[in-house]
């Protein structure tokens, strides 16, 4: 491919700047992929023997794979708010989607905490921080933190926005016409995941052509693989001929996973083509666990879409299947190819991590709940700490029968120990996630000292972040 004079001049200027003894190193570009509802084992490199994910697998082989990565919420909105703010949910008030008063009122024993659905524009977001550090910022896909033009991506630090608004799932489905005011329709039948990846790749090319020395932050939160389950027919037909494996066997869902993987591949091929691989940090993760693994819960959310085994539960639960997710990171020159890391990290850690990578500091007047995990990217370690969850609302499994994916609950993980507290009756469950990743044996009665210690840690954290608790029903 021919290189334009402007491009050649940009590369020459960059080389001269890097050779100058007093010139600081240019910060790397950053690409952050976030899949929607992708389970912990929904990638081949995380154990699936059914879904094909060659591009993400290749990223894992050239980067580091985190096996104990967690989201701050068991569903999408709280995780995205924690990612952008660097704060746990009690700080910003986004605990769930829409409302915590889900299911029939007669089955709810508590009055849920009022839930916010818009991220406060007074919070300095990760995108705004990177923007102030000299990054060009671009958003492609699901936002779900407020409507444009009041609180959309453009109002929260992104220079451009393709497809991001207040909706949590694609209003028009995964094929054009999209019915998305922030994304022009493509040709009839065009796939949404393909389109978002293509737009991201095109923007990267245009940016490098015009601003070769300016780093970029590309945030690509796919709508996939969230419902509705709509797939390319030919690809789904191929999966229908494959033998199910490890609880994975839904051809349409599998086709959506592979299409999402191809979108990741399209963007990564673009940075390879532009010879930016060595100066681009790439991170891939999911916003919560997969939609499956509900066992006897049944109802509309009990459909066999995927399976999070060996983890217990799925999306909407504080069991591992709802909050443990795949995470892969590649930082050329820093991460060791093919490495794995079992140190627990959580969504609020992304803000300080990416700020450090970008060479900037955290806002002095804004609370930061996470820590930078750059030492882990370099093969180092982090100090011991606890991770926390607060979900003061309901998520129904079968609204007619009054069954729940979760009732109001909180959780803490310290080391390999994890405690879940259910607010309706004060019940506490204790698990050792190292010896029992499937949370099959509740050890609260066998290990009362551990349970009491973790409960005290959880209570102290709730006091510190001023976490509101649901109140007793007046019925």
Outline the structure in words.
The protein has 475 residues and is of the alpha/beta class. The protein has a single domain, classed as 3-Layer(aba) Sandwich (Alkaline Phosphatase, subunit A), CATH 3.40.720. 27% of the residues lie in helices and 17% in strands. The protein contains twelve helices and 17 strands. The protein has helices at 5-19, 54-62, 76-85, 89-92, 126-132, 192-210, 233-240, 251-273, 320-323, 350-357, 374-377, 448-465; strands at 29-35, 64-70, 110-111, 136-140, 160-162, 216-221, 280-286, 324-330, 339-341, 345-346, 386-391, 395-398, 403-406, 409-414, 417-422, 427-432, 471-472. The strands form four sheets. Strands 1, 2, 4, 5, 6, 7, 8, 9 and 10 form a nine-stranded mixed sheet that branches. A four-stranded antiparallel sheet has the order 11-14-15-16, with helices on one face. Strand 15 and strand 16 form a beta hairpin. The chain is globular, with a radius of gyration of 22 Å. Mean pLDDT is 93; it is low at 1-23 and 298-302.
Main attributes?
475 residues, alpha/beta, Alkaline Phosphatase, subunit A, 9-stranded mixed beta sheet, 4-stranded antiparallel beta sheet, 12 helices
Low-confidence stretches: 1-23, 298-302
CATH H level, superfamily name:
Alkaline Phosphatase, subunit A
Helix content: 25-40%
CATH architecture type: 3-Layer(aba) Sandwich
Please give the domain count.
1
Distance between the termini: 72 Å
**Overall geometry:** globular
Q: SSE order in H/E notation?
A: HEHEHHEHEEHEHHEHEEEHHEEEEEEHE
Structural class: alpha/beta
How many individual helices?
12
Kindly estimate the percentage of residues that lie in beta strands according to DSSP.
Answer: 15-25%
- Radius of gyration equals 22 Å
CATH class: Alpha Beta
Biggest beta-sheet profile = 9 strands, mixed
- Average pLDDT rating: 93
What would the CATH topology be?
Alkaline Phosphatase, subunit A
Number of strands: 17
């Amino acid at each position: 491919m021919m290189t334009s004079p402007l491009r050649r001049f940009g590369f020459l200027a960059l080389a001269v700047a890097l050779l100058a003894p007093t010139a600081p190193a240019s910060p790397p570009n950053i690409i952050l992929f976030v899949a929607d509802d992708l389970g912990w084992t929904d990638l081949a490199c995380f154990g699936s023997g059914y879904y094909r994910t060659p591009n993400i697998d290749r990223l894992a082989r050239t980067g580091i794979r985190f096996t104990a990565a967690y989201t701050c919420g068991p569903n999408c909105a709280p995780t995205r708010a924690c990612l952008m703010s660097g704060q746990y949910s009690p700080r910003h008030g986004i605990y769930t989607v829409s409302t915590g008063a889900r299911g029939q009122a007669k089955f709810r024993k508590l009055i849920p905490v009022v839930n916010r659905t818009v991220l406060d524009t007074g919070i300095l977001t990760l995108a705004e921080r990177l923007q102030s550090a000299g990054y060009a910022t671009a958003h492609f896909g699901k936002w779900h933190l407020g409507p444009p033009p009041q609180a959309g991506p453009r109002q929260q630090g992104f220079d451009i926005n393709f497809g991001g608004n207040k909706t949590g799932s694609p209003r028009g489905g995964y094929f054009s016409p999209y019915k998305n005011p922030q994304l022009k329709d493509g040709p009839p039948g065009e796939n949404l995941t393909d389109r978002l990846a293509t737009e991201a790749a095109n923007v990267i090319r245009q940016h490098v052509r015009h601003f070769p020395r300016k780093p970029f932050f590309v945030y690509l939160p796919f709508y996939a693989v969230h419902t509705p389950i709509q797939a390319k027919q030919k690809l789904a037909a191929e999966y229908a001929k494959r033998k199910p494996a490890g609880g994975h066997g839904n051809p349409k869902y599998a086709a959506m996973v592979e299409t999402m993987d191809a979108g990741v591949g399209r963007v990564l091929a673009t940075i390879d083509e532009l010879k930016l691989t060595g100066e681009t940090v790439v991170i891939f993760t999911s916003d919560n666990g997969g939609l499956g693994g509900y066992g006897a819960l049944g109802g509309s959310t009990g459909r066999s879409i995927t399976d999070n085994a060996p983890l217990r539960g799925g999306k909407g639960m504080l069991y591992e299947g709802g909050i443990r997710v795949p995470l892969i990171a590649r930082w050329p020159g820093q991460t060791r190819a093919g490495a794995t890391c079992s140190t627990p990290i959580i969504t609020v850690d992304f803000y300080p991590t990416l700020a450090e990578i970008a060479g900037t500091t955290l806002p002095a007047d804004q609370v930061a709940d996470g820590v930078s995990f750059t030492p882990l990217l370099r093969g180092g370690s982090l100090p011991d700490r606890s991770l926390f969850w607060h979900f003061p609302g309901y998520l129904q499994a079968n609204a007619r029968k009054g069954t729940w994916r979760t009732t109001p609950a909180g959780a803490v993980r310290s080391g390999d120990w994890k405690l879940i507290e259910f607010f309706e009756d004060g019940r506490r469950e204790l698990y050792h996630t190292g010896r029992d990743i499937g949370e099959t044996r509740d050890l609260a009665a066998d290990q009362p000292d551990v349970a009491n210690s973790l409960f005290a840690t959880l209570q102290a954290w709730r006091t510190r972040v001023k976490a509101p608790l649901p109140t007793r029903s007046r019925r």
